[in-house]
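Side project, low priority. Logging it here so it doesn't get lost.
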Amino acid sequence: MKVALFTETFLPKVDGVVTIINQMLTQMHVYGITPMIFAPPNAPTEYNGVVVHPSWGTQFLLYPELHFSFPSAKAIRAIIEFQPDIIHVMNPTFIGAVGTIMAKIGQRPLVASVHMDIDTYVTQYAGAWGLPIAWAYFRTWHNQAAVNLAPSSATLAQITRNGIQRAQHWQRGIDLTRFRRKPRNHALRDTISHHHPDELLLLYVGRLSKEKRVHDLLPLCAIPGVRVVLVGGGPHAETIRADFAHTQAHFTGIVTGEELIDLYNAADVFVFPSQSETFGLAPLEAMACGLPVIAPFSGGLQDTLHDAQNALVYDPATPDSFVQQVVTLRDNSDLRNRLGAQAHTYAQSKSWQASMDQLISVYQSLYTTR
């Protein structure tokens, strides 16, 4: 089987979509599936033996990390020669829309998947006035697909409510051999806590962008006996660093590999203020490393967070509730340890292999019935 993958996001960008693509490519190799990727203009031309065709185009004005891009003539010739059995478009917006058209022209089964909270992103970057236009646009492309995959029950409900048809839940998972408990690196903890290793160490891992609500972490920096570490990069990294300059917060920049696992294990609590998650891989990664999570019970996080079991949830509409939950775990180490242990146990049932096996079964079903 051959699968052409059209994605609006790819390396060198580091985010949840790229993580999912990596999982997809790994499992396709296991099943003997040959992929070809059609990606944004700044993508590499090859990745782990897979041919990648960067598109051409310019940055999208409303969100500069998204490209208003289309396949090159070379890429169009390549997909014609490739003769894919399945075309999969991820967040079909620009290059994904072209993938949808090519599936129709070539009479190939089309799979589409959702990786963006459309309501939040459109409201944040364009305004609520743009929502009817955005949903009409995305419906146009998604409703050409034989299957539309949503990563959480909240996202599934959102897209169904807005008229996207033939939708089903595509579960998420993480690499449990990578995200794991390991002995704490005390030297690292001393460094990132600015030599206050005995204070409660809060960790945020994610993009530094408006929709992640990173500024909601500012009040946590003023809590006595608490240190805050932010891991990641993004379009608003410089502005966010400047806004935190008067605090004790520590910024690491983008961290990958085993160093990221060390950071998870050096921390005491994972904090995640985002309300725009279609699923939210980072909280699950933190749980696998034994960290309790403090986050709002919203969007895709609702599938992962179980209040007072593996996490403490807070109400974003109540400004002090985030601070109160942090203080609760600062002052109650027994609760912190119990939540961390239960979070670790919960995460063990969320492997990425099960998630990708589900995707492959969708491919196989469409392949055998086309």
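Brief comment: Residues 2-173+351-369 form a domain with the Rossmann fold fold (CATH 3.40.50.2000).
Revisit when time allows.
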